[in-house]
Design a protein that fits this description.
The complex is a heterodimer of chains A (114) and B (113). Chain A is 0% helix and 53% strand. With 114 residues, chain A is mostly beta strands. In chain A, the strands form three sheets. In chain A, strands 2, 5, 6, 10, 11 and 12 form a six-stranded mixed beta sheet that branches. A four-stranded antiparallel beta sheet of chain A has the order 3-9-8-7, with no helix packed on it. Chain A has a two-stranded antiparallel ribbon with strand order 1-4. Chain A is globular and about 45 Å long. In chain B, β7 and β8 form a beta hairpin. Chain B is globular, with a radius of gyration of 13 Å. The N and C termini of chain B lie far apart (35 Å). Chain B contains no helices and eleven strands. By secondary structure, chain B is mainly β. Classes of the chains: A mainly beta (114), B mainly beta (113). Chains A and B meet through β5, β6, β10 and β11 of A and β4, β5, β9 and β10 of B.
Chain lengths: 114, 113
């Protein structure tokens, strides 16, 4: 079984600045995938970015990038040029190759200040 | 296709009543998942289907919970004899056979009074 830990319950950032959200995970599998999901208030959860564990290169999607440290089992999300629309809960999640289910962390509430 | 659809969006029920939720996945998505999310927490896995076969159930899914996916299309999640502890957001997600990304619906918020 895998576990995902997000130890920061909430963070705040000034608009246009950069913020990093932390996540650690644990799994005994070699084949797994890591995700960051965004859940805006009263809206559905959407995928922000994903990382395949076998890929050494960190994933990037526009203003969003990850710092994937496989040995340390760390998977942080960096949001550059923060926008007001980035205000949401962010969940880190892990899925192993052998199992379809996602295991989520407790989430972090990110507030972007104007 | 407008994505994963869940109905109803909100449900208030009295303790002891039965409730049923429906999820319509993205068409041609073979895999369908149910999660439960309580306030301030991340979603917790309940069960998943590949086509019409229910392949895994969490220990969170007590005997009062049952899920079906007839003909591998929409799915229903029924909770019998609801308890206050069942109050939560119930999320449905679907994914294609060979993809790792799950697409979520907006959820059904259940309040048991």
């Amino acid at each position: 079984a895998q576990t995902v830990t997000q130890s920061q319950p909430e963070m705040s950032v000034q608009e246009a600045e950069t913020v990093t959200l932390s996540c650690t995970y644990d799994t005994s599998e070699n084949n797994y995938y890591l995700f960051w999901y965004k859940q805006p208030p009263s809206r559905q959860m959407i995928l922000v970015i994903r990382q395949e564990a076998y890929k050494q290169q960190n994933a990037t999607e526009n203003r969003f990038s990850v710092n994937f440290q496989k040995a340390a089992k760390s998977f942080s999300l960096k949001i550059s040029d923060s926008q007001l629309g980035d205000t949401a809960m962010y969940f880190c999640a892990c899925r192993t190759g052998a199992n379809s289910k996602l295991t989520f962390g407790k989430g972090i509430t990110l507030s972007v200040r104007p | 296709d407008t994505g994963v659809s869940q109905n109803p969006r909100h449900k208030i029920t009295k303790r002891g009543q039965n409730v049923t939720f429906r999820c319509d996945p993205i068409s041609e998505h073979n895999r369908l998942y149910w999660y439960r999310q309580t306030l301030g927490q991340g979603p917790e896995f309940l069960t998943y289907f590949q086509n019409e076969a229910q392949l895994e159930k969490s220990r969170l899914l007590s005997d009062r919970f049952s899920a079906e996916r007839p003909k591998g299309s929409f799915s229903t999640l029924e909770i019998q004899r609801t308890e206050q502890g069942d109050s939560a957001m119930y999320l449905c997600a679907s994914s294609p056979q060979r993809n790792t990304e799950a697409f979520f619906g907006q959820g059904t918020r259940l309040t048991v009074v």
